[in-house]
Amino acid sequence: MAVRTTPPKPRVSLDRSIDRMRKQLAEFAPFLGKGKPTRSLEEFDLETERLIGDLLGQTSDLLHAYEYAELGEAAGLVNMTDEAPEGTGMDSQRQSLLQRSRVLESCVAELEARRSAEPKKTKVGQTLIGPQVAEHMAPEIRSLSQESSLREAGQLMQKWKLGSLLLTDNQSYVGFITDSILAREVVANGVNPATTAVKTCMRAPVIAIEGNRPIIEAVRMMKEQATRHLAVTQDGQIIGVISVSNILRYYSGVV
User: Fold this and answer.
1) Cβ pair 82, 75 in contact under 8 A
2) Count of CB atoms situated within 10 Å of the CB of 236
3) Residue 199 forms part of a structural domain
4) Residues near 247 by Cβ (< 8 Å), separated by ≥ 6?
5) Residue 122 near residue 134, CB atoms below 8 Å
6) In contact, 98 and 203? CB cutoff 8 Å
7) How many structural domains are present in the chain?
8) Residue 4 domain-assigned (yes or no)
9) Which H or E run includes 164?
10) What is the C-alpha separation between 97 and 73, in angstroms, rounded?
């Protein structure tokens, strides 16, 4: 007679992991001025790196995010150092501490999402992990015809204080034009901005992410696609744009 063995229950392990990460987050509070730390920040960082690696894996984006936060190089979250949070009004040390806290909160959220997904393996793709993209996107959609000139695109970006514009063909969104593309095409390649249409150097097709996806997924997509801007969609319709600046403001605690 075959003997049926009872597989281990992963829920117990995840419960313990969540408790450990919550404890780590609570122990970080004194570094933000909510009490007196019982050890040095360096010791705390080393333990936290080990903990994130153990619970989420050595290749986890959240481990990389925590390491960047330690360095105070928030822009490194997406390997793009040319766009930083604007007007945060905080010194770099304070920003670095807040970034650490945000990463720890995201670690707790990801573990909780894994736990809630366990009974519903067929719906893992719909799992929400941490704060959603739509909560931190720019809801105003600024667009321009792909037939417009590079000069007009640059003027509108300056007017609206934006780093990108969506481009249209009068029926749908077909691509992005960004400040970095403008600089590269106009300055490096010497094109005439007054006579060159944006469609000749736009980024196409539009790279998009669903608004109900977690922030960390937007970070991952930006790194994979080497872009600083993503269109945000809901039910197949673009409802906003999320950029590196939006993500860095979240990780810096500026929302």
Assistant:
1) yes
2) 7
3) yes
4) 77, 78, 136, 215, 218, 219, 222
5) no
6) no
7) 2
8) no
9) strand 164-168
10) 12
